[in-house]
UniProtKB/TrEMBL annotation:
Any one annotated GO CC term: plasma membrane
Topological relation to the membrane, as annotated: Multi-pass membrane protein
Name of the protein described by the UniProt record: Inner-membrane translocator
Subcellular location, principal: membrane
Transmembrane segments: 6-26, 33-53, 59-79, 86-102, 108-126, 133-150, 185-207, 219-246, 258-277
Protein keywords: Cell membrane, Membrane, Transmembrane, Transmembrane helix
Length: 300
């Protein structure tokens, strides 16, 4: 039972990460590979604050969100001026930079050795979560709050601008919408929400190291978004459950652990192929639509 609760907590963490990435990859049409970096920034922020200053996790969450949001704003100001493949390359570069800092700034992050002894999640000083069931409730609460925020956001005028942006950026810009500003805001919100999952992960596991926040992790999160649906926040939970439970299910049917663990890597690759295929198909459809519109205008 304890192990099932452990898996459910991980599912909640990845649901938060995938939902936040869906704001960028699904609604505004920007495929980011830097999400694990913001996830790690949240984890390291709360770990350092909890150990050195003994601050409760509830206080660490807004600090982690501000730091992640600030970094995301800097990245977005550059990346928002690019599209498609160039955008992916920029976010990939940022992910590599964040990982390198975590791995080499040993006086702060302890490098590859990581940070052990992170205290349990404290709502207020002296009130800590001890059981896995309590972490399940916390994970569901945070995942529900993130879903609520994104759901309201997507049904707002700003959300409709993001959807229009993902369909046709040029046409959206011709309507007088601030395309670069919308990209920047969505990327900042996405990074801030990802840091919440990092805070929960750090306090739940009580140990973090750079290997948990690599580009492979970013690809895994992107895979959840693609499998669950680029604009389907509810199905993302099912996709997170599927990919988290997949290695365990393969072990259960007798597949060796070394092979079962690598099955996720296969899904990563298939998800990336699907991303580029969908991007190419979308660009081709937009080009055809523009040509048809020009022909109609010329005949008119």
């Amino acid at each position: 039972m304890e192990y099932l609760l452990h898996l459910f907590v991980l599912i909640c963490i990845y649901t938060i990460l995938a939902q936040s990435l869906s704001l960028v990859a699904g609604y505004s049409g920007q495929v980011s590979l830097a999400h694990a970096g913001f996830y790690g920034l949240g984890a390291y922020t709360t770990a350092l604050m909890s150990i050195h200053w003994e601050t409760p996790a509830m206080l660490n969450i807004p600090v982690a969100m501000l730091l992640s949001g600030g970094l995301a704003w800097v990245v977005a100001r550059v990346a928002a001026k690019t599209v498609d493949d160039y955008y992916i390359i920029i976010t990939l570069g940022i992910q590599v930079v964040i990982y390198s800092i975590m791995n080499n700034w040993q006086s702060v992050t302890h490098g590859p050795l990581g940070i052990p002894g992170i205290p349990a999640f404290a709502i207020v000083p002296g009130v800590e979560l001890e059981s896995k069931f309590a972490y399940c409730l916390l994970g569901m609460t945070l995942a529900g709050l993130v879903w609520g925020v994104l759901h309201r956001l997507m049904h707002s005028p700003f959300g409709r601008v993001l959807i229009a942006l993902s369909e046709d950026e040029v046409y959206t810009k011709s309507l007088g919408k601030d395309v670069a500003g919308a990209k920047t805001v969505s990327f900042v919100i996405s990074g801030m929400l990802a840091s919440i999952a990092g805070v929960l992960y750090a306090h739940y596991i009580s140990y973090i190291d750079p290997s948990s926040f690599t580009v492979d992790e970013s690809i895994f999160i992107l895979s959840i978004v693609i499998i669950g649906g680029m604009r389907n926040l509810l199905h993302i939970f099912c996709a997170a459950a599927f990919l988290v439970l997949l290695p365990e299910a393969l072990r259960f049917v007798g597949m060796p652990s070394s092979i079962a663990a690598n099955m996720r890597q296969i899904f990563y690759g298939l998800a990336l192929i699907l991303v580029f295929y969908r991007m190419r198909s979308t660009n081709q459809k937009l080009s055809i639509n523009m040509e048809v519109q020009r022909d109609i205008e010329n005949k008119g």
